[in-house]
Amino acid sequence: xxxxxNQTIGCLALALCAWMPLSPAHAEIINYAEKGRPEDPxxxxxxxxxHDIILFKESAGGGWVKTRLLDLPGRSMPSxxxxxxxxxxxxxxxxxxxxxxDDVEFIDFxxxxxxxxxxxxxKEGDFTGAYPFLAVLIRDYPSRPNLRTLRSEFLxxxxxxxxxxxxxxxxxxxxxxxxxxxxxxxxxxVLAAIGMMTDSLMQKLMDENKLELAQKLLARLEKDYLGxxxxxxxxxxxxxxxxxxxxxxxxxxxxxxxxxxxxxxxxRESIYLKPxxxxxxxxxxxxxxxxxxxxxxxxxxxxxxxxxxxxxxAARRAGRLLYRVLxxxxxxxxxxxxxxxxxxxxxxxxxxxxxxxxxxxxKLEPPLNGVDGFFIADRLAARVSPESDVYFSPWAxxxxxxxxxxxxxxxxxxxxxxxxxxxxxxxxxxxxWFGGExxxxxxxxxxxxxxxxxxxxTLVGEQRTAxxxxxxxxxxxxSASDGVAKLLKGEVDVLDQLFPADAVRLEGNRKIRVARxxxxxxxxxxxxxxxxxxxxxTFRRALVYGTNRQDILSGELLESLEVxxxxxxxxxxxxxxxxNDPLGYAYxxxxxxxxxxxxxxxxxxxxxxxxxxxxxxxxxxxxxxLKPIRLAFPPENLSRSACEAIKSQWELLDLKIELIELPVxxxxxxxxxxxxxxxxxxxxxxxxxxxxxxGPKGMAGSTDQLIGxxxxxxxxxxxxxxARDRLLDLHFISHHELxxxxxxxxxxxxxxxxxxxxxxxxIVSLYQNAEKWRLSQ
Length: 777
Description:
Elements: E1 2-3, H1 5-18, E2 32-33, E3 52-56, E4 64-67, E5 84-87, E6 96-100, E7 104-108, H2 110-124, H3 127-140, H4 147-164, H5 168-181, H6 187-207, H7 211-224, H8 231-256, H9 260-273, H10 280-290, E8 293-298, H11 313-322, E9 324-325, E10 327-333, E11 336-341, E12 344-348, E13 354-359, H12 373-382, H13 393-398, E14 399-404, E15 409-414, E16 428-429, E17 445-451, E18 454-459, E19 471-476, H14 480-489, E20 494-495, H15 500-506, E21 512-516, E22 521-527, H16 537-545, H17 549-557, E23 567-568, H18 598-618, E24 629-633, H19 637-651, E25 657-661, E26 676-681, H20 686-694, H21 705-715, H22 720-737, E27 741-746, E28 749-753, E29 756-757, E30 774-775
Parallel strand pairs: 1-6, 8-19, 8-20, 24-25, 24-26
Antiparallel strand pairs: 2-4, 3-4, 3-7, 5-6, 9-16, 10-11, 12-13, 13-15, 14-15, 17-18, 18-19, 20-28, 21-28, 22-26, 22-27, 23-27, 29-30
Helix pairs in contact: 2-3, 2-4, 3-4, 4-5, 5-6, 6-7, 6-8, 8-9, 9-10, 16-18, 17-19, 20-21, 21-22
């Protein structure tokens, strides 16, 4: 049904009575009026449905109506309209209305109104108010002829407003968006403004000593504005060139003064500031040839130096520089570790009852070629004696007799078949083996200077090769992320340990190589005091149920990234990196880690408290008090992050937790200083390391009878099947007795600049091939 203009007013009056708001909480929206003009709703306009407004001439009675969008050619008023205009009024959807074109004074089209609102707000500097109108235009009317200019004007003027407020970054981003979107819009003015803002931003970054970010910004500007007159590019290129030339001159002067450390630092800073500086790489290469030096970023510098340490990553790493090991683990094989005899070759009889070592002094360099079989046999015998400082009970239990077949062959007769005798005699070779002082180094390097967080290891004697580093300098970084920044800047050449998430991110960098150590580290909490509650298995089990280990591993340590091999554990042995991985030969995959169940944890804590109270009452003693638990961790941020998360979760169980950060270089607390220690252990050979972790003289110091029985049965294994079966039994026992609280295993990685050659990809320890390292440019 159609209603003419003469009928419209009456219908509108009737409709107005029927069209009332449903609730006083909603404001009434007026869609027509008999006189006047509609009010400006401001930003609330965008809350209304799209509509056009028809304004009628006074001669036709005046007034106005809001209509559904009119279907007119070009969405504009005809130049010479004739006849009638058909429309539907908002809110009166069931009726069609018509009006003579002669009665229509003006039509305010929806999209033109949006454009007008946008333009007015831009002119007034109200960019917050203009943005939603502009966004609707871009979404619904992308082909409007005026939109490109309107959007460009918005970006230009809003950028200027932000710059005046000191918001340089956002202002620059808007101008660059404008330049990409509409390069034809005032190109000289836009480029001049970009140049001014980039100059200010570069200066700000330099003042804040954010050199790396400044260089990245300059490199991007050069790429994005190639061939365009951006004044800031030329200015800052010249500044960086002058800075690089200054450092290059300093490097040359230091080289002449034979201050090789300073020369190396300045030469590298020079090419870092300006990679294209003339003779920059040649100077670095020359200094490296004269005095090869490698900077290594570490989370911990070493205090003790022992390449066989199980619980101290830094001691194990740096110890390899100063000491050699009688049998050094080189990697992992299908049946345990692969070991290299320092002085020659080995041979084991088919029945595994005899183990022979053949010395080859003619192939060794001094002083290794001066050791004979008699001395080594004496050291092997000392390892059997409980009074000796090198006593090791598994070796004592395995060895029946030692024989010599001349000075070059040692024959060990075993009490029973042993699957891996070489693992039992990983002895540190010190100076006493060559007539020197006990404990004196035997490796290629010596610890020279310790300056705060910097430790220098210098080469002793002649270089094995012309490129062997004369110095290896360990630089302790504040955090893993700080180490990554130093590696990218060139301040260090190697990072010995990465956060798993950092390793994933760095793999995409073409200048950096990331490699994984083949053997994962096992993270656990080790009781280390006489805390009455921790001595109880029920309480330790409560702590396991009260720790959301998967959440800490995935969220805190892996940062929600998937890293193969990183997983929560149910026991103290590594689980391997892949399914059926021979590295996991001691891990029972059928034993699932305990789930996070805080209610069960609370129940177990209550049960434990009741048990202790009942025991004390029977003995007529005072019940043990639940004292705060002191949790110690090494001074690096991976362990710190994990322990802070554990503390937060245990506090939800109403436990009081004290975090204790160990001194630099220490991985295990001194007696009486802590109750639990967070340990990242290198349990690489469970068949031997089980006792080092769980035994009464091991980390856990366990005197549990079941644990002791499991260890003795393991050491009586006659073949690999026996060894694996008994390790699985020991895993089962450890899962229930909890001599240590298992957390997770991490696949550790290292990273280095691709200019450093010879590092290796399947190394167990970072310095395994240090004598082969070579720098290139």
